[in-house]
Amino acid sequence: MIHGPRVRLRRPEREDLPLFVAWLNDPEVRTGLSMYLPIGMAEEEKWFEVMIERPQNERGLAIEIPHGDSWRPIGSTSLFAFDYRIRSAEFGILIGDRTVWDQGYGTEVTRLMIDHAFGTLNLNRLQLRVNATNPRARRAYEKAGYTLEGTMREAVYEDGVYSGLDLMSILRSEWETARKG
Question: For residue range 127-143, what is the model confidence (pLDDT) as tens digits?
Fold first, then answer.
């Protein structure tokens, strides 16, 4: 497990799947994801089976927060689209439990995954894509150290409207400098 001050990241279990399906079927949670249609349990089970066969670095993680004497899942995160030659990957996160939005969990998880990517996996570059219409997510990424590289114009279509897709990244050298400061 990967532990932070207020969260822990662990491997998803089959028992988590109904919760993941509920989150992904919530239109407000799904806004900003590449998914635009609801999913069923069969699809999520298939995703799970494929995921557990992938190399360990490429498997998703469940995000949990303390809940009494145990832990409660609130979302998921992953690194994907690895390019091992240039030592890069893409970062993704979903805080599915809307009751904990705007409490800094996204920023904390983003920082933990940056530390994992550079400190454990020895990557050199992390990138992500975020809808230009999602200032909450962009703010969390900037607080964690990501820099805007550019915007792909009208690259997203949601609710009958085109909007931009921001590309952000963080380099190992930037992470190292921030750790020293």
Answer: 999 999 888 899 999 99
CA distance 43 to 177: 42
Sheet of 61-67: strands edge to edge?
A: 2-3, 8-10, 61-67, 70-83, 88-95, 125-131, 161-171, 147-158
- Classify domain 2-180 by CATH number: 3.40.630.30
Among candidates 150, 143, 165, 180, which has minimal Cα distance to 34? 165
Total-model pTM:
0.93
- Output the average pLDDT for the chain: 94
- The structural domains of the chain, with segments of one domain joined by +, span 2-180
Helix and strand tally (H, E) in the chain? 6, 8
